[in-house]
Amino acid sequence: MRYISTRGGAPTLDFRAAMLAGLAADGGLYVPETLPQFSPARIAALAALDYPSLAYEIIAPFAADAFSEPALRAMIAKAYAGFRHQATAPLVQLDTNHFLLELFHGPTLAFKDFALQLLGLLMEAALAETGGKSVVLGATSGDTGSAAIHGLRGKKNIEIVILYPAGRTSDVQRRQMTTTGDPTVHALAVAGTFDDCQALVKDAFTDAALRREVKLLAVNSINWARVMAQIVYYFYAALALGAPARRVSFSVPTGNFGDIFAGYLARQMGLPMGMLMIASNRNDILTRTLATGEYRAAGVAATLSPSMDIQVASNFERLLFDLCGRDAGRIAQIMQEFKTTGSLTLTPAAHAMLRSMFAAQAVDDKTTLAQMKATYETSSYLLDPHTAVGVKAAEELEGMKVTLATAHPAKFPEAVQQATGVMPKLPPHLADLYEREERIISLPNDGQALREYLREL
Ligand SMILES: *Cc1c(COP(=O)(O)O)cnc(C)c1O
Q1: Are strands 343-345 and 13-14 parallel, antiparallel or unpaired?
Q2: Residue 163 contacts residue 193 (beta carbons within 8 Å)
Q3: Looking at CB atoms within 10 Å, which of 208, 213, 317, 444 has the fewest?
Q4: What's residue 209's pLDDT?
Q5: Is the pLDDT of residue 408 over 90?
Q6: Which atom of ligand 1 is least distant from the CA of 147?
Q7: CA of 406 to the centre of ligand 1 (A)
Q8: Does a structural domain hold residue 204?
């Protein structure tokens, strides 16, 4: 499979190079040149497979040129072996036609483990050929960093450096980053905000001199391999509920548009699907885009669902590329326009195409808490605040529907307790998280300090 940039100005790459590149050199995002197609008969034949076997069938067309079949199967099996549920991504029934897809049985209790557990193994294997040390560098407001650390830790020739804003993540999130005891893990507490952390990381990635000395890799949600891994569970859930004969809609708690874009890809690959609901909190850029056809940035508001507190949804560019007839020149132009004006306008045809597949709802904190309380009262189920946004938004969907449960309630215990009066318990493998020894490394909010740290690794 070959990968092209949404902006048309970067070289076409194979899977391995696209994964190691992260962002394309022209500022665009890599997308596959074509999508593998699954006929209804082929989909029906996948129904009996367990999660890792299904994952192989979905992922192989994208990555088979980089790895042999046994190597890819082994990495997939290993990636999901650490999940604490036999079904990997179990469905739980909330109501007659409404199911939750629990994506939080991985090591860090959020759906990001699905992609990052696999990405760590794929990167390790891809780098084994080139040799030499690489440094995975990223910034986090919480979930991405912990999932990246647990996906990349202890990999041969890879150090993982994650910047987080000191005092601004939840205790669970911080402890998941600081208690691994793994010498390849460097969780750096920056005296600043998440935006400061991101600026430091961006600064390092654009420093040509530094990059000649230190091989830097990115694992943020624009990395194609992450999106790819997330396609699998849409097939898995739909198959369990009767696909291809039955059409299922999905409600997806959305921030950077990575998770829901994977759902769109499943649909484009042939999986019969109803609507894809973009469920957001007060940071509602996508809800406004659906309503008006204008994609316009606004300030970020802090909410109870912090992993969805974003100003612009980076993966949306991949969808725009398709909505604009895969016209890379046009994407380069409108993204430039967006950069200068903070706004871009869809053509009527692109807007109509968007609305034919996606719906959107923005849910405020008060409604989120009310949903958590209601679901606990009616179904004795504790929702985390991100999932609660999805469950609320799913009310607008018809027919058989699945809400993606993106985090375990114990990852956001204060909000859960506030809504339901119940303090959610950490699962057994993390029960001692609060007793584990932390390794706190402080970093000044200063680009030079980060450069020095990276050079000394
Ligand atoms: C990252 C995250 C999201 C948002 O996912 P995107 O792919 O950025 O849309 C939603 N919920 C939780 C718990 C997350 O960690």
Answers
A1: unpaired
A2: no
A3: 208
A4: 95
A5: yes
A6: 15
A7: 7
A8: no
- Is the residue at 281 inside a domain? yes
Task: Determine if ligand 1 sits within 6 Å of the CB of residue 263.
Answer: no
What pLDDT score does 142 carry?
A: 78
Domain of residue 97 covers: 86-109+225-425
Ligand 1 centroid vs 280 CA: distance in angstroms? 10
Q: What are phi and psi of 113, to 5 degrees?
A: -60, -30
pLDDT given for residue 311 in this prediction: 83
Instruction: Name the token pair of 436.
Output: 């584990």
Residue 79 has pLDDT above 90, yes or no: yes
Tens digits of residue pLDDT in 427-446: 999 999 999 999 999 999 99
∠ CA 141-143-390 to the nearest 5 degrees?
105
For the chain, how many structural domains are there in total? 1
Q: Are 111 and 104 in contact (CB under 8 A)?
A: yes
Is residue 156 part of the annotated active site? The answer reads: no
Report the pLDDT value the prediction gives residue 76, as an integer from 0 to 100: 98
Helix (H/G/I), strand (E/B), else coil: 5: strand
Per annotation, catalytic residue among 112, 155, 401, 411 = 112
**Ligand 1 atom nearest to CA at 256:** 8
Query: Which of the 8 DSSP states describes residue 307?
Result: G
* Atom in ligand 1 nearest the alpha carbon of residue 104: 13
User: Would you say residue 80 lies in a domain?
Assistant: no
Confidence class for position 194, pLDDT limits 50, 70, 90: confident
* Cα–Cα distances in angstroms (integers) from residue 220 to residues 45, 55, 355, 375, 451, in the given order: 33, 21, 27, 32, 20
The answer to whether residue 102 scores a pLDDT higher than 90 is yes
- The pLDDT assigned to 141 comes to 84
- Indicate which atom in ligand 1 lies nearest the CA of residue 259: 7
Determine whether the shortest distance from the Cβ of 113 to ligand 1 is under 6 A. no
407 lines ligand 1 (CB under 6 A): yes
Lowest mean pLDDT among 46-55, 135-144, 238-247: 135-144
Distance 297 CA to ligand 1 centre (A): 19
Inter-residue contact 315 to 368 (CB < 8 Å)? no
Q: What is the CATH number of the domain that holds 317?
A: 3.40.50.1100
* Cβ of 385 below 6 Å from ligand 1: no
Q: Is residue 368 part of a domain?
A: yes
Residue to probe by mutation, ligand 1, list 102, 257, 259, 310, most atoms within 8 Å of CB: 259
Q: Would you say the CB of residue 253 lies under 6 angstroms from ligand 1? A: yes
Nearest-angstrom CA–CA distance, 314 and 419: 31
